[in-house]
Amino acid sequence: MNDLQVFRRAALERGTPEPVVDWWLGLARPQLLFHRYEDSHRAAGVPVAGTYGGYPRLPADVEWDGSLDLVVSIDCATLPRDLPGFPLPADGALLFFGTDYEEDCYCRSCTPPERQGRVVHVPVGAVTSERVPPEDPEDEEDEYPEGESLTGPFPIRWTHRWAFPADESTAVRRSEEYREAFQRYDLQSFASILDGDDAVFALGGYALHSQDELSAQLEEERYAGSEDWRQLAEWATTFKGYGNTGRAMWCISREDLGVARFDRIMVSTDINM
Length: 273
Description:
Elements: H1 4-13, H2 18-25, E1 29-36, H3 39-43, E2 50-52, E3 57-58, E4 69-75, E5 93-98, H4 102-106, E6 117-122, E7 129-130, E8 154-163, H5 170-173, H6 176-184, E9 201-204, H7 214-220, E10 229-238, E11 245-253, H8 254-258, E12 266-271
Helix pairs in contact: 1-2
């Protein structure tokens, strides 16, 4: 995971001053990308890191009515422990729930937080059972055709990369000097965007929002001290309703991440119109 030196050499070879390179590398955040697990990975001894899609396995005291889809279930014991600034549970399972109905994502003021997304940590050894959502007699499947999102379940594996911010990020806009250096030395080319990758899900990295910088959005809503918030996970998907692509981002405060308070996350959605 020491591939930051690759970025350093590339930036210096392009004529970027060393102080600018040091500043830029200081903004790097670890990110785990999750991909479909194939037979070749099993033959190579790569561990299965979890499951994409399907039905959740939950303890009896955890409610789930099926209104949110299970996006991924991640086996925390398979994740690396040396992710700087990104502490994750050492064991158990992290379950990420979200919605790919576009109308729920558009109307944040009329969609309660519990309908936008959720994260549940199931401790190792907990007694769980698979939950199947009740059938809805008023299912509007014809009105909201399926997107290309939840086509699982299938097993997943992870790869690591370093993520960098885009020019909308508070880290870049903190001073005019940083903003000018970002543009002059084309640091945007190092920004990490999930679109176009074969990953189906990601942990960590930066929350990139094309319509509104995420920190400003957090300040405008009910989340104070937005610079203390960071992206916990990202899901690139095709939304039901109008077929637009976009991403859902689960965000968490640094304090809550440090004590595994995943019940206090918020979800932001960026839809490409």
